[in-house]
Amino acid sequence: MKLSLPLAIVGAACLVLVPRPAHAHCDTLDGPVVKDARIAFDSKDVTPVLKWVRLDKEGEICEAFQHALTVRAFGPDARTLADRFFFEALVRVHREGEGASYMGLIPAGTDYAEQLHLDATSAASPAEPAEHFH
Fold first, then answer.
1. What are the start-end ranges of the H helices in 44-75?
2. For residues 23 and 101, what is the distance between their CA atoms, to the nearest angstrom?
3. Is the pLDDT of residue 127 over 60?
4. Exposure winner among 57, 69, 91, 122, fewest CB in 10 A?
5. Where are the domains of the chain?
């Protein structure tokens, strides 16, 4: 019985401390920023993505969203192009707000640990305080 508690503690520590890759980074096409952009397109309402940008950048994102909505109406190819344009603009502005560099959208399923390494080696400036975001 005396051995059970230490084993339980070690087991719990291993679960917490062993690094596991995350599956959604803000630069990825399956990340939370792009997921919210898809929701915004489905509802034709930019509001779900505004939480990802600084208040002073909302106008830029609202304008890009309206342009993308207009272009999406021209057919499937136009829709794909408009979506990519908006995802790129949104993630770029979000990363700028974090004080991080932006090197383009990353394919869905990309290893998060690898991306963290890239972010650490290419960071342009310190992150902005959280109060600048919604």
1. 47-50, 58-72
2. 20
3. no
4. 122
5. 23-128
The answer to whether 27 touches 91, Cβ cutoff 8 Å, is yes
CB atoms near residue 74 (< 10 Å): 11
Contacts of 108 (CB under 8 A, 6+ apart): 28, 29, 30
Scanning the structure block, which residue is given the tokens 């021209």?
Answer: 74
Q: Which two tokens stand for residue 78?
A: 């136009």
Which pTM value belongs to this model?
0.67
Q: Which of 42, 52, 24, 33 is nearest to 108 (CA)?
A: 24
Q: How many whole angstroms separate alpha carbon 70 and alpha carbon 40? A: 14
Q: Which of 31, 33, 23 is nearest to 93 (CA)?
A: 33
Report residue 7 as tokens. Answer: 């084993």
Q: What is the pLDDT of residues 48-58, one digit of tens each?
A: 999 999 999 99
SS3 123: coil
User: Do 54 and 133 form a contact (C-beta atoms < 8 A)?
Assistant: yes
